[in-house]
Amino acid sequence: MEWTMRLPSQEGRRVGRGWTAAALASIPLVMTLGNSMLIPVLPVMERQLGITPLQSSLLITMYSVVAILFIPLAGYASDRIGRKNVIIPSLLLAAAGGGMAGWAAWRMDDPYGWIIAGRMLQGLGAAGAFPIVLPLVGDLFPDEEEASRCLGTIETANTFGKVLSPILGAMLAGIVWFLPFFSFPVFCLLSAAMMVWSIQAPARRERPLPFRDFAAAVKVIFRREGRWLAAVFAIGGLLMLVLFAFLFFLSSRLEEVYHIDGVRKGWVLAIPLGALCFASFVAGRLIGGRKERMKWGAVAGCILSAAALLLVPVDSSLFFWLALFSAAGIGIGAALPCLDALITEGIEKKERGTVTSVYSSLRFIGVAVGPPLAAWLMSSGVAPLLFLLSALALVGGGLAFWLIHPEMDGGKENESGDISRH
């Protein structure tokens, strides 16, 4: 795979390492902008296109559905032909999808179908972009502590994209309602250029296994290490469901109860997301290469989120809600880099792309399920939704506590189900 950090010309150069991390972090930032930036613009699109709220929600859902379907294929391809050879074409494909959606909205009389097609093309590109970054970090940073710091930076960029998305989307749509579509190709091309400049392919590669042998090897991995892997997969999906469900809930309540909308709503939503972003950054720095810290970071983050969400129905003041949702964001932000690091450091390089693709698919499922689940439960009041989200976060903490058992010096899982030293 792409062993940029081991090239002689870059040995010991901190600036080179910084550019590598920046190039990797640009991908989740761009992919998050491409989806979340449309959320505050959907009501405007409904008026401009003459569509229903259900039809506008498909602009978000179809992106995620296509990504879910193709992430495993992209992960397998990255193990076969190299991470960079999958990521860069995927970024270009996502850029083309954004351009298609923007052109249709600008030039066509009845553009909805073509906009959906463009969004599906964006989702196809997204499948081969962000999910492949996680195994690439493990390839580029063989030192576990450096890899953990980089993963924290990547989760921070992912979260910062969520912070920036509602603000930037509302600002661009205030100029021209379809401008967010056209902005996405620009972001993708910048990220692709950073990848070309900063990530270098190796002179030699390992000969890939035939598909039958590869499938057998992956089956052995899941049979041997299935317990802790299943826990990490489930926790990642649950936390993304909880995050997007409470963001949908908070966004709706800001308009309905507090009459805050537009760019102002974007800034308010940025408060809990900013807390999540900061927690991701700090957690990535603190866990280092210690698997024990990764486990307890995930446990503590889930419990903090569960406790904060459980208290939300107690008081309906905006200050109280923002404080609790920020605490929940801190918990999720602390847990996610721990989960990323457990996978990238616990799986061998040659199978890492396939395994992390399954993890990324479950995270996308959480993103897709959270908002409609919140919309359905909100009709019954505040308490049922928040109690359910609290329970799901607590389940995640329980899975981390009972199913992830690293030794004190860390490593990958042994046959007894514990994660032992490499």
TrEMBL record:
<keyword id="KW-1003">Cell membrane</keyword>
<feature type="transmembrane region" description="Helical">
    <location>
        <begin position="86"/>
        <end position="106"/>
    </location>
</feature>
<protein>
    <submittedName>
        <fullName>MFS transporter</fullName>
    </submittedName>
</protein>
<keyword id="KW-0472">Membrane</keyword>
<dbReference type="InterPro" id="IPR036259">
    <property type="entry name" value="MFS_trans_sf"/>
</dbReference>
<feature type="domain" description="Major facilitator superfamily (MFS) profile">
    <location>
        <begin position="20"/>
        <end position="409"/>
    </location>
</feature>
<dbReference type="InterPro" id="IPR050189">
    <property type="entry name" value="MFS_Efflux_Transporters"/>
</dbReference>
<keyword id="KW-1133">Transmembrane helix</keyword>
<feature type="transmembrane region" description="Helical">
    <location>
        <begin position="360"/>
        <end position="379"/>
    </location>
</feature>
<feature type="transmembrane region" description="Helical">
    <location>
        <begin position="54"/>
        <end position="74"/>
    </location>
</feature>
<feature type="transmembrane region" description="Helical">
    <location>
        <begin position="21"/>
        <end position="42"/>
    </location>
</feature>
<feature type="transmembrane region" description="Helical">
    <location>
        <begin position="184"/>
        <end position="203"/>
    </location>
</feature>
<dbReference type="Pfam" id="PF07690">
    <property type="entry name" value="MFS_1"/>
</dbReference>
<dbReference type="InterPro" id="IPR005829">
    <property type="entry name" value="Sugar_transporter_CS"/>
</dbReference>
<dbReference type="InterPro" id="IPR011701">
    <property type="entry name" value="MFS"/>
</dbReference>
<feature type="transmembrane region" description="Helical">
    <location>
        <begin position="269"/>
        <end position="287"/>
    </location>
</feature>
<feature type="transmembrane region" description="Helical">
    <location>
        <begin position="318"/>
        <end position="339"/>
    </location>
</feature>
<feature type="transmembrane region" description="Helical">
    <location>
        <begin position="294"/>
        <end position="312"/>
    </location>
</feature>
<dbReference type="InterPro" id="IPR020846">
    <property type="entry name" value="MFS_dom"/>
</dbReference>
<keyword id="KW-0813">Transport</keyword>
<keyword id="KW-0812">Transmembrane</keyword>
<feature type="transmembrane region" description="Helical">
    <location>
        <begin position="228"/>
        <end position="249"/>
    </location>
</feature>
<feature type="transmembrane region" description="Helical">
    <location>
        <begin position="385"/>
        <end position="404"/>
    </location>
</feature>
